[in-house]
Amino acid sequence: MRTTLPFVLLCCLPGAPAPPLPAGGAVQVEIYEDIAPGQTFDLSSAAAVDRYSEPAFAFIHTPAKFAPNAVPLDRSTPYYLRATYRRSLTGNVQFRLRARGAARFYVDGKMVAETKPQKPNTSSDDPVPPPVERGNTPLRPVVYPHQDSLVTVDLPAGEHAFELIAVVGGKGLFPSTGELAVGVSRNGEVDHLLGPDESPLLTDPAWEAYAAASFSRHYAADIVRRRAVSQEVTAAWDERHKNLRERLGTPAGGATVDGFIDARMKEAGAKPAASLTDLEFLRRLTLDTTGLIPTPDQVRAFLRDDAATRRRKAIDRLVEDPSWADHWVSYWQDVLAENPGILKPDLNNTGPFRWWMHQSFTDNIPFDRFAAELVQMEGSATLGGPASFGLATLNDAPMAAKADIIGQAFLGQKMSCARCHDAPFHPFKQKDLFSMAAMLAGKAVKLPVTSTVPQGEGGRKPAVTSALKPGETITPAWPFAKLVAHAEGDTLPAASKVDTRRELAAYIISPENERFAQVVANRVWKRYMGVGIVEPADDWSRGKASHPELLAYLSREFMASGYDIKHLAKLILNSNAYQRKPVGLSADQMSAGKRLFTGPVHRNMTAEQLVDSLHLAAGKPFDCESMNLNPAGDRPARQFLDLGNPARGWQMTALSNERDRPALALPIAQSIVDVMTTFGWRQSRQSPATDRDDAASAMQTLILANGVLGTRMARLSDDSWFTDLALSNRPVATLVEETFLRLMSRPPEAQERASFTRLLEPVYRGRIVAGAKARSTKRESDGRVSWSNHLSAEASLIRMEEERKLRFGDQPTARLTKDFRERYEDMLWALINSPEFAMVP
Amino acid sequence: MAATALPKGKADACIFLWLGGGAAQVDTFDPKVRGDGKKQAGSYYDAIDTAIRGVRVCEHLSKSAPLLDRCVLMRTITHSIVSEHAAAANLVHTGRMPSGTLQYPSIGSVVAHQLGPKTDEVPSYVVMGYPNITRDPGFLGAKYGYIYLTQVDIGPNGLVRPPDVDAARQDRRETLLAAMRDGHQKRNPGDVVVQAQADVSRQAFRLAGPRFMGVFDLNRESSTLRQAYGSEFGQRCLLARRLVQSGVRFVEVSYNLNFLNGSGWDTHNEGQLKQHLLIQDLDQSFATLLQDLEKNKMLDTTLVVIATEFGRPPEFDAGGGRGHQSEAFSMLLAGGGLKTGQAIGTTDELGKKVAERPITVPDFHATIHCAMGIDPHKNLYAGDRPVPITDQGKPVLEMF
Hints:
Largest sheet of chain A: 6 strands, mixed
Helix content of chain B: 25-40%
Helix content of chain A: 25-40%
Shape of chain B: globular
Distance between the termini of chain A: 62 Å
Number of strands of chain A: 18
Radius of gyration of chain B: 22 Å
CATH architecture of chain B: 3-Layer(aba) Sandwich
Largest sheet of chain B: 9 strands, mixed
Order of helices and strands of chain B: EEEEHHEEHHHHHEHEEEEEEHEE
Distance between the termini of chain B: 16 Å
Strand content of chain A: 5-15%
Number of domains of chain A: 3
Oligomer: heterodimer
CATH superfamily of chain B: Alkaline Phosphatase, subunit A
Structural class of chain B: alpha/beta
CATH class of chain B: Alpha Beta
Number of domains of chain B: 1
């Protein structure tokens, strides 16, 4: 749509006077919710629920909404975004309103441009829109299915008021803003975003930079906002923990992790493993706290510290690293069976409560609060609150599944068998599981027919039985009176309206229920030491504590610290026990009596640690397709989730191509998922797991050696950190040295130095190609393919071609000679594929 | 059922052809009176005679029809997941609904677990199609997962070297890698875990060596045969035969050439108009596969399956296509030493419901397992939890 309106005429139109608007500075933004359908665009009688500012007229992210306990909430759908701004602007000016859905743009109170509402789309065989015509302009093209509405206005000299009102989401639509923006230009030049002078151009690079900055700004602002909004609740938890500390009194002094470990080793006549070197320690510690290998800068800073205190200082530093949250989310995704589906989820899928977990570990909320909030299942179900945990699509006993997960995670009670029958080898019955399920449901539940063991006619008598009959009703009740007999739901800060959920949370986290603190302490211990004090860590009725006093000490410390995981972590990470060389785990160590912890158990990097560390070392972003099979946004969130653009392994998800359709493939993401699944990551987490199936396999070696991801990581493209290193002016020996430090966190051994120098030296001097330029390294997928058109033949062909192209990996740099490049790539390949790389020291 | 009643077939490999999307039984293996593509329900095509007396199939299956005596048609497969492809595809692959306490293995993984590869130089389970949950090993663990490829000429993921790495460069890489490995071992003397990891790394490259990778080189077949197999799907079928010859136990071949008609087998709306292209293409490849297996004396020991997540109703939707129907639809087994040349089960007049002899998904699984000499009631173990291979599946005894 392109119109030109004479401003003078506009001014003569009748209408209410423009509301007072702030002048200059930032763009003021307001969010409105629950606007009645008839009231579209009339916000005069509504009150804004959020106010914030943006640097210019582009609205890619909006603030998250939080409950008083900081749990994320859904906004009404639709909600409205209103942006206002005043500045002087004179003469013939073209405005470009860009929106996915309905929006209106006003100058001095008069509407000058509008876009049409987005319609929910139930089709999947629309035609693929034609490729974007870029022409000669660097203008960022309109991304399907956004609309541009252009208007030229002749503005008299002086200050003017600009206002945008946009509808976000709505029935049958995904509630996101897309690329909502207003551009301004003169004389056919490229648009700037409307805003202060020097606002970014509406070009791809400037937009991408703006979008990245917008993400960071909103991410940081959300942290501040949720901490502010939850101050009272946080204070109530602090009070609860203060009381607990007083009740516990001062612990007897002198106890340490090493005291307990050394005593048992001495008793058994066992010798501890040797200590890790400083550099081995730093690699282990950084992986265990942040999920990443240390950068050369971190290594150097560490070595600059005083030798006597550098380990302790590194621990203090790294538990405060923002990546602490990333590394913990991976773990709890497994344990709590986080299993979002991005395409019409129907395989026992939850919502993406990864987001709430991530914020909880970022804020380091006390772990009893974490458990209580999870169990109460409030907040946004589809967009990532604890209510997301409560979903279990196409599961006829969803709350039984949740009760089993909670039992394993926080109580060491594995009740999976009780889903269908009385557990033959456990001290509980099917009724116990369903009683807890009823507490979660907030009402009595019926035993579904599938939750029974068939007693077929003339068949074998099953080895298992149940006292319950299909269809039988089970009322809410706490099944583990042995752990704790009494708890009051009302004592919890910010408790749920559902009485029995509140009570369940209160039972689980009750300080009288020492099992909770012990189970969590044992999990943290196991994560760092490779094996638990109690095994199986999720099924305590089958194991005994190898070091009961150590377990009691850790759990008491944990409780006294206010259930602070970081406190617990520091106790373990500072111990000699943790700082020893790893030892193999023999079968007999799985029995408590023989487990001595002479050293931490050998571990390979987890799938997430591996892909995250590779990307970090290569300096390459994930840059894969977004975890969203309907970027057009014309379907509701419950059918198509948008899990965004992953930057870390835990943000990946099952790619949900059960339909086996080429048009639904996400080739770059698939290449990452391929590596992760081969290294033990579960793309589908239909059930909880404490241990991963990640034993070394031929496919692990091969997928890294030959797969797309490994090829990309070793490829010297123009966005590789190693390409920059190779282009810098330094001796070949330094290149080898720095490469080792970057990938292996250690200098090369003499022999390694010699052999890699031999490889590179002959072609090193002339390696730089004079005059060659850096090339774009963007790995883009065709934004035209969406669910609404994936059944068109063209959509299949587009994706199949993308897959084919990707096989070659990233475009190599032209700035280095082919011979040198290939040799250096082969060095990188050899380091990345060496077993040492993926083994935690 | 008493354990002794279980038949034991002689198939030692399975080629599982997957028609993702839900192939319309009335337009393929269970033709009914002609409909008009609009209000009048019924088949979209005429029917033709087959090598089984009294059994007719869609006219576009003209190459397979004379070979139907090598097949058993199952026209009364029935389950209750009608709305969603993923859930139905998962059910047909695993034989079970998700429980939330376990992730059940796919049939390919179960076969891999029970039989393993015929030789230790090949994997036991290969998928040609997209990796997804329905094909996963579930609680059996990654060891029983698959190697996959999405397009024949791209080759198996993780096994094919990147296009810019030739043999000489690979040698240089492996030499450098060997030095890294050896150094690591030297610095950790006596560490058995370091030793084991080094061994895995050393041995892994053998799987990607010429012996197995040669299987993927279809140029080793005559061009006449390659042409006879036809499209990309046909080439996948040819590769499946080569994989089985090399010792692979279970090959799933996806028919997802969706660009032929847009929707693939999920023929809502306009997907119906060019559905005949899919059927003809399937026909050519399938018929060639049967003949080729027979020629190589492999048909008796290779079970060929045509499976899909559900069927489609005889009625047409507003766009001239078809919706979903899971209450009654067709699948097919061929070869594998079964008593072929029969159609089992009958549906009602328009193929909407089972008239006689329903076959459940667990029955379908039990039949495949029995054909391959696997006891469908045997327990697998998820940790220490026993889980029977099928959920009380009864093999279709008429085939044995």
